[in-house]
Amino acid sequence: MEYSSDDIAAARSLQIATYIYVSTATFWTYDYACSLHEEWTFLLRSHWSKVKGMYIVTRYLPFIFLIMDLYLNFTLNENPNKCRVLDNIGSASGIVSGMFSDFFFILRTYTLWNNSRIMLVAMLSTFFIFLVASLGISFATTVSSPYVTSAIPSITGCYQSSISLLFVPFLLFSIFQLGLVIATLIRAIQSWRQHPNHLYTVLVNNNISFYTCGFLISLTNVFTSLFLQYAYSSMLHNFQFAILAILATRLHLHLWRINQHAYVSSALMRTSMSDMLFANSTA
Fold first, then answer.
1. What is the pTM of this model?
2. Is the pLDDT of residue 282 over 50?
């Protein structure tokens, strides 16, 4: 049986998308394995708080959409409705994961601005406006766009045939990430000499690096959604959410470890001073 060039191109896009999903899942698993000891040390030793709850959700929610991606691309789904349901579950978990990752970035920027309520309100207001707009566009696009499978029987997976408007949520994400970069740079220029401590320097450097990374990935998804067809247009969507989750949780673990080291060093110094004072008093 002969297949058209369009069928072959669609099948090739599904294969490449499968490679991307497998690579993302492998990278995620590798990162989780490398940080397992440090992560469980944090989970067992740190006090329970809302931020810790956010960390758990951000860290483990990507497992859901990564599993959904792998399942969709390794099984034959001849039922478009089944594809739609599974893809919606994966997309929803990815959006929630991205939302919690951005909450971490907002909190880091809020800390840099000396817990400024005005800055917090501005960031949260912008974020929720962008989030509502992104959810509305994503829902409208998903409902109106049909799911299709490959005409070649041996090719597994499915994709939405037309998702041109899905570039808008990622454009909004990139604008928000760029705003966080600018806010961090402004604060760094204003307060660099006033905060020479190591923790502040790490916070600024990591914020700029992580926000820039998120900004570039968002721009990449804008490009793929606008200019690529078939499964190519959405193959990096959940990759972005996975990377954002890694960046957010890695930054939080790093800052927690630095804070713990500073606390231990301070406690040891107080103990040494107490021993010296006790020795002088008994001499």
1. 0.78
2. no
